[in-house]
Amino acid sequence: MEYMVLCSIGLEKILSNELKKMGYKLKNANNGIVEFYGKEYDYYKLNILLRTAERVMIKIGEFYAETFDELFDGILDIDLKQYLPKNGKIIIDKVRSSKSKLYNKSTIQSIVKKSIIENLKKGYKINTYNEEKGVYKIRVYIKNNKVTLALDTSGDGLHKRGYRKYVSEAPLRETIAAAMILKSGWKRRYPLIDPFCGSGTIPIEGVLYGLNIPPGIYRDFSFNDWYNFNSNLFDGMKKELLKEIDYNKELKIYGYDKAYKMIEIARKNAGNFDINKYITFVKANMESINLDYKEGHIITNPPYGDRLKDKDHAEKIYEQMRYLKRKYPDFKYTIITSHEEFEDFFGSKAKNKKKIINGNHEAYIYYFEGV
């Protein structure tokens, strides 16, 4: 079975490393999609375990089409019975087309849906297709006239772990926070400090990683309602993964925010996964941080112009962040912002700078060592 795992553009390498550690040999990784082969029910563990993935898709068909007739006929030639039931609710969730003769998204959606229904009616030898049980969302990718159909196994995006019931004005997506932690190289024996913690996403993701808590262990997925859902296999897998969580780990994770409201929200979010005791949340501004550590990590999402509606104020905060460098000169810093000149205000040159695209929003992950 061929898989397509989606992530924010720019995080392909970090996601690829996660998959390699799970034993997969990758076929391709670019433009926010990592492709590889796996076993039939691997999407159970992929959805539960991956920290930086947004969706786990199954590739169900691929062919070339330059006309709508070729599109319709190409789908008819796919053996869809191995993926779809005779009574599932089929939704053409998204269409992406580039450098292709077929580009009208609404027409593509309509033709793909009709052809899939005809395919299943013929395959199951039924006269009427009734959409009754289970939701099957399908995405259509067309590039250079090559059509790829992919079945979404996840449902809600995998950034929705389930703990963040309360959010700040511009929350950092959980998968991106996890990517920052993985990119930073943080080890559990070192402190992790977030001086602008907001609703607590970075500290919470730090605990999930530090205790080996699978990010998707407490949520449901689309496949839970599918006709071929193997509850014994799924429940057994979750049971084994829960055994691997190490609640005895001692973590030094701190979240600061100058707004008491945000600290309360962060505490509530951590409480949703019952991990409050692993994080010290403090109402304090950045200059008040006074922890006695010589080595550690500062991983943070400082306010920026888009978020504050005040670019000048954001830049002033970046300059004030030089206090952290003076206080913790031997720390490693992983900072995300949409500001392309952040290094100038921070007063240091990043060891590396990674551009990521999340939807329509562009941002940069800066990594500093020994500032």
Short description:
The chain has 371 residues and is of the alpha/beta class. It has helices at residues 12-21, 42-49, 68-76, 105-124, 174-184, 201-210, 231-243, 260-272, 305-308, 311-320, 322-327, 342-346, and strands at 2-6, 26-30, 33-37, 55-64, 89-98, 135-143, 146-152, 192-194, 253-257, 279-283, 297-300, 332-337, 352-358, 361-369.
Q: Which properties best describe this structure?
A:
371 residues; alpha/beta; VC0802-like; Rossmann fold; 2 domains; seven-stranded mixed β-sheet; 12 helices; elongated; RlmL_1st; RNA binding
Please describe the topology of this protein:
Elements: E1 2-6, H1 12-21, E2 26-30, E3 33-37, H2 42-49, E4 55-64, H3 68-76, E5 89-98, H4 105-124, E6 135-143, E7 146-152, H5 174-184, E8 192-194, H6 201-210, H7 231-243, E9 253-257, H8 260-272, E10 279-283, E11 297-300, H9 305-308, H10 311-320, H11 322-327, E12 332-337, H12 342-346, E13 352-358, E14 361-369
Parallel strand pairs: 5-6, 8-9, 8-11, 9-10, 11-12
Antiparallel strand pairs: 1-3, 1-4, 2-3, 4-7, 6-7, 12-14, 13-14
